[in-house]
Each structure stands twice: as structure tokens, then as C-alpha cells.
Amino acid sequence: MAHKKTIDVQAAVAIAAAEAIAAKTQGTFGVGGLMLDQHGNVLQSLHNNVIKDGLVFDPTAHGERQLIDWYYAERAKGRELPAPQDITIVTSLDPCCMCSGAILAGGFNVVVAAPDQASGINYDNSAAFKVLPEALRAQAGDSFSYPAILGSSLYARAATGAAPKSFFIGKTISEPTQALCSLVFEATSADVMAMLNNDLPQPALKDPATLPADHAIVRALKQQYPDALTYRCAPHQPNAGLAPFLLQAMARDREHGGAGDAVALLDSFGNLLLCMAGRMTQSGIRSAFMETTRAYAQLRYKLLNGASAAQQDDVRHYLGHPKDGTFVFAKGPDASAVSYMNLGAYGSTMEGPLPLENPTQFQYVLPSLPPAELAALCAAMPPLYRNIIRIQPTQVADVALVNALS
Ligand SMILES: [Zn+2]
Questions:
Q1: CMP/dCMP-type deaminase domain spans which residues (predicted)?
Q2: Which of 166, 245, 321, 377 could form a disulfide with 275 if both were Cys (CB 3.0 to 4.6 A apart)?
């Protein structure tokens, strides 16, 4: 813990760069970041944790998202911390849509080093944030800072976005430090994206509903979600039978400070694996989708980590990549920052094209926006989301399910 009263942007980015190197060493995306108070004291620094022990640990464990959850967890423990408006996150890489949504939902400031032309919120370097819903653009312009990189190399740039906070002494990043932030991410990006998509193809998957009740995979599923495998529909076609599970989670979401959202995960056979509520009272960014996608990833991680080759083979056959299944949101995306975070986290869960035979992997029951508006919102997202994954939230086809939740 530093107790300096002030810090250079350069010194802060150097800490983020060191964290990014640690992330690369761990075998995950080479991205790091830190959180500063209103005097420039370092409150916390950490790095990406998407991959641990050579396995997918948590697709949402990006640096900025973890820093924000850390902030809320500390406050929940009773620690006095400045308001988000007085906090600055410094990150080695331009925030993705998930992290940008989380930053905007909380009201934090952010200083960004390297650009990310695939998933960065400022991927076009305009600092206009046209990728965001219109209502969030001005807030991003006031809180996302891209300091100047002085020099003449390809890493040089003029300052754009918001001015760095006044506690920073120097307000520029050196070319070598900026280059380090870029290169360490570029050195990891393709490999980690491949690891997030190295699961068995759907035809090789086996139905977990055929396993005996005392099988380790069934027990782990039921421990995570007691109603796992008690509902089944035709693949990708949720019907009214899913309503009681969603309604129960929606009620729990309201108890936990949310607006009554819930997200179910069905596997490629139509089995219900999980249906989670958010935990918004613990952290303003623990939405139902964040809880669901993280719970599924961590369930697989726990079963795979340290298991024998035969056990790992079993887990990979019975618990496939979520892209082959269906996420069913009780409420469709809207134009809020939390909803944008969810869309981004969905992208971070996929990290590659949706299967051609499963274009409606993302389904919702109750619409929050007219379909054309929602399609336009998704079509404006950075290239990873709109061109590679092709995020396309679609309302469930079953009218009885819609009526049951209305
Ligand atoms: Zn991110």
C-alpha cells in the first residue's frame, strides 16, 4: 500500500503494466489495473484472471470488473472508501463492453493505456463512444481518459477523452510503457481466446440427465443449483415449464436489491443447469447474468482442476461450452449501463462465433426495448461483439412462457 499523496499517470500505468506481465505469466489475457483514491493512493492492484491453472476460471474476471467488485466488497465489510466519482481505475488496456458497463454503472473514472481494436469501448480512437447507448456517451466522455503518449512511434497519440484527475502530477504515458501494455496483451490474446473455445463440439456432447444421481457431476450441479436437471425442454426452445424457476429467481433478485431479473442456462439437450438471481446489495455489478455465467464457469473449473484425465474427459463430455446451450434472461436488455455490462459479459463468455446452428443462444422472455432498437444497440458494439460473436438477443418463441412472466 502506497501512501504517497500524488502519483504520475506514468507511474500508475507502470503498475498496471507489471500486473499485465503477471497475468501473461499466469497464462491469461495480459491485462492489469489498479484503483486509486482521490489523492492518488493505490487502494488495490490486480490482473486478469480469466484463465487459471490452464483452465477457464471465470470469463468475467477482467481487471476492471474485479476491481469494482473488490471496491463494493470492501464497502460491504464496513471499510470507508471514497465515492466512485472520487475513484480512478487505471488499466493497461481499453475496457471491454462488460468492464465499461460496470465502470459506468458504478460511476467510476478510468485512465486507459493501450487500445483494443477488437473489443475496446474506444476501439475507433474517437473518444466519441458511439458504441454505447446514447444516454451513456456523455458520462463516458466525462470519465474515460486516454492520456497523451509523447513521441513519434506507432504508440504515440494525443490525449483524448476526459482530463486525468488533478492529483496526477505528470499526465502522460511513456512510449515504452504504452508499448509494453500493448505487446503483453497482443502476446496473449489469440491463445486465450482459443482456450475459451477449445470445448468439444456439440455432436460429441453427452446428456447429463442420463447420469446416476450420485455421479460427481450431478452432485456438483445440484450443489450449485438444487433444481438442476429437474426441467427439460426441446433444445433451445424454453417453454412455460421454465417459468416457476425464473419466477423464483426473480423474487430472490428483488430480495437481493435487484430489479427482478433472473437468468437460466439450458444445455444443448434442453436441460436446466442453473437459474440465478443477482446480488446487487453486495455489489452494484453482480447482476443475474454475471452470477449465472460465472457460476457455470466455476462449476466446470472446480470439477476439472486437479481431476484425473478420465474425470476431465467426463466433465468435458457432459458439461459443454454455454455457446451450445441457451441463456434465458427473464428480462431483455435495455439501454442501461448494467444491461450493457451484461451484453459485454455475454461477449466475454463466448469470445468467438456462436455456432451456426444455434444463432439464438441469447434468449429473453420479457422485452425491455423494441426489437429494432435492441438490434441497433448490438450492431453498434465493437467488432468482436457485432462481427465475430454476432450477439443477437431474441425473444423466446413460447407465448405461454411470456404470459407466465408478464
Ligand atoms: Zn473487460
A1: 7-132
A2: 245
Name the grid cell of 219.
452432485
Let me know whether 223 and 308 are in one domain. Answer: yes
Place of cell 481518459: 145
Ligand 1 center to 89 CA (angstroms): 12
- Report the alpha-carbon distance of residue 297 to residue 310 in Å, rounded: 20
Measured in Å, residue 99 CA sits from the centre of ligand 1 at 4
Centroid of ligand 1 to alpha carbon of 65 (angstroms): 7
Quote the domain boundaries for residue 280: 203-405
**Mean pLDDT along residues 36-49:** 97
**Average pLDDT of the segment spanning 215-244:** 98
In a shared domain, residues 298 and 373 = yes
Predicted local distance difference test score (pLDDT) of residue 5:
58
pLDDT of residue 4: 52
d(CA 96, ligand 1 centre) in Å: 4
Give the Cβ contact number of residue 369 at 10 Å. 17
Q: 2 pLDDT exceeds 60?
A: no
User: Among residues 157, 126, 117, 119, which one has the least CA distance to residue 144?
Assistant: 126
Dist. CA 59 → ligand 1 center (Å): 9
Which grid cell sits at 178?
504504452
pLDDT tens, residue by residue, 113-145: 999 999 999 999 999 999 999 999 999 999 999
- Name residues with Cβ closer than 5 Å to ligand 1, which is an ion: 62, 96, 98-99
Query: Of 139, 174, 195, which marks where a domain is finished?
Result: 195
CATH of the domain at 257: 3.40.140.10
For residue 1, pLDDT over 60 is answered with no
| CA 83 – ligand 1 centroid, Å | 22
Identify which of 7, 136, 9 has the alpha carbon closest to the alpha carbon of residue 128. Answer: 136
Task: Note whether residue 2 is domain-resident.
Answer: no
**Are residues 166 and 272 located together in one domain of the fold?**
no
Same structural domain, 208 and 167: no
Ligand 1 centroid to residue 205 C-alpha, Å = 30
